Amino acid sequence: MLKKIKYGKILTVVFITVLIWVWADMVKTETHPVSGAAISAAESVSPNLWVTFADESSVSIDKMVLKGPTSKIDEIKRKLREGKPVLKFFLDPEQTAMTEPGEYTLDVLDFLKKNDRIKRLGLTVESCQPQTIPVSISMLVRKSLRIRCVDEDEIPIKDAIAEPVQVDMFVPEDWEGEKRIATIRLTAREIDHARLMPIEKTPCIELPGGHRREIPITVNITMPSEESQLADYLITATLGIAVSPTLQGKYKVEVTNLDAVMSAIPIRATPDAKRAYELQPYPPMTLYVFDDDKKTAGEQRREVIYNFPEEFVRSGEIKLKGQPVEARFKLTPLPAGQTP
């Protein structure tokens, strides 16, 4: 007769075995050097405090040696391989008794050993370089800032309308005049959208050292429709011909429909854009001739390029009315020694 199976004893053995495995993993530790860690100011820093590290918004930790259970070290290695920002640390001056303006020296090793992020990872910090870093604490004052809208290339958008037109923000005390500006950056898609209906954006300031701070206020941005600000103009035509260097002195470029190409250029533009187009040092139109064009015998066709000022093109303040002119041209080889 089979003996009665004693499940209680089996479960006890399994439980003790698991405990032994866990204990063995905890006892087995290793160290691992890492680089790429950084310390920056915490987002919770009081709005009237400005924290910098040798005039920079963050400081790199060149080398840090971590110690802990093998499983935890392996987990850190995996996260670092995946590019996850697991070693970004944030300094809150109020937690380090740096609440008054002045110059301080931060003990980096002590800071990291007490860091909650390290504790949550189940690791300790054995050593680090640098061992200390300078920390500057400055007081900011509340001032009213004008809203300025710019595009993705940092070019001001003159026709953007902000509501409100000013916001209050803590900034350095010496910010006066042109410095008292809060910036809103708009993508091309946002600019088009703002011509149809208001969009909500959050302005920001950039403190010395590249530290950006958002202003916790929503601003409505609108743009006048393109058609409401554009007028029709006719611009005197001038044609420039851009010839490949390998063709210069070897071929003559003849535009066979020059009268049609040189007719007045119809545009829609703002007065400023029209003036800039007329006064720029480049010809209003350019015909480009390329190396491969010499392979074609007889007449060829190509649309001219209109050299509208780029900043006005981006802001939608100038455009061609109608279709581009198509130039007809042919290349004629020049006799040796003759210049066109």
List the helices and strands and how they pair.
Layout: H1 7-27, E1 29-34, E2 37-41, E3 49-52, E4 58-61, E5 63-69, H2 70-81, E6 88-91, E7 102-107, H3 108-113, H4 116-120, E8 124-129, E9 132-139, E10 141-150, E11 161-163, E12 166-171, E13 181-185, H5 188-194, E14 199-201, E15 204-207, E16 211-214, E17 219-222, H6 226-229, E18 231-235, E19 239-243, E20 251-255, H7 258-261, E21 265-269, H8 271-279, E22 285-289, E23 300-303, E24 305-306, H9 310-314, E25 318-320, E26 326-333
CATH architecture of the largest domain: Beta Complex
Strand content: 35-45%
Radius of gyration: 34 Å
Helix run count: 9
CATH top level label of the largest domain: Mainly Beta
CATH topology of the largest domain: RNA Polymerase Alpha Subunit, Chain A, domain 2
Largest sheet: 3 strands, antiparallel
Report the helical percentage: 10-25%
Would you tell me the overall average pLDDT? Answer: 85
Shape: elongated
Tally the beta strands.
Answer: 26
Biggest β-sheet: strands ordered side by side in the sheet: 1-5-8
Low-confidence stretches: none
Q: What structural class results from the helix and strand content?
A: alpha+beta
How far apart the termini lie comes to: 116 Å
Count of discrete structural domains = 3
